[in-house]
Amino acid sequence: MQSPTEEELEESIKELNDYKNRLEKEVLSISNKLKMPQKKINSIINSHSELNQINIILSKLNKQKENITSRFTL
After folding, report:
1. In this structure, are residues 32 and 59 in contact, taking their beta carbons and an 8 Å threshold?
2. Three-class secondary structure of residue 14 per DSSP
3. What separation, in Å, do the N-terminal and C-terminal C-alpha atoms of the chain show?
4. CA max distance for the chain
């Protein structure tokens, strides 16, 4: 399997970040409609399994991108 290019990684990171932001907005919107306290909203976002999974994947993609970038700067 061929390694992704830096551009492919950047695009994937951007799309995942966009999705994560939409998901967070949706959770916020619903929580605000339910008049939940901000502390509870933050707790929900921090424990949201899909958001946590996205954060893990984003972290891995960013590390992979850094590795590619560092190879080119050597």
Report:
1. no
2. helix
3. 24
4. 53
Q: Quickly list DSSP for 19-59.
A: HHHHHHHHHHHHHHHTT--HHHHHHHHHH-HHHHHHHHHHH
Pick the more confident residue, 73 or 9.
9
The pTM for the full model equals: 0.82
Closest CA to 42 of 24, 54, 16: 24
Report in angstroms the alpha-carbon separations of 64 from 13, 14, 47.
11, 14, 25
Q: Token pair for residue 54? A: 């996205």
pLDDT digits (tens, 9 = 90+) for 21-73: 999 999 999 999 999 999 999 999 999 999 999 999 999 999 999 988 887 66
Q: Rounded distance, CA 24 to CA 13, Å?
A: 16
Decide: 9 and 61 in contact? Cβ < 8 Å.
Answer: yes
